[in-house]
Write a structure and sequence with these properties.
single chain; 5 helices
Length: about 80
């Protein structure tokens, strides 16, 4: 009985050690175009940590939104 209680206690304790980071809400290209401050903040975070964030939906959407804001087209946008 003590072993079972010990295993349960250990399992509960270790469960907190492996919590994933809360997922960031994904915003569309259109949303970033309308929220330029957040677009620029997202692009800065993406540039500061490209190894981890470069291919995330928000980095890609913010990059495309920036392109559309600057050039008005996404025809030549390559990822």
């Amino acid at each position: 009985m003590k072993k079972i209680i010990g295993i349960v206690a250990l399992t509960i304790t270790l469960t907190g050690c492996f919590d994933e980071k809360p997922k960031e809400e994904t915003h569309s290209v259109e949303w970033f175009q309308k929220n330029k401050v957040e677009m620029n903040n997202t692009l800065k975070r993406c540039r500061d940590n490209p190894g981890e964030l470069k291919n995330t939906p928000n980095c890609m959407n913010a990059k495309q939104a920036k392109h559309l804001v600057l050039f008005g087209t996404s025809d030549d946008l390559h990822f």
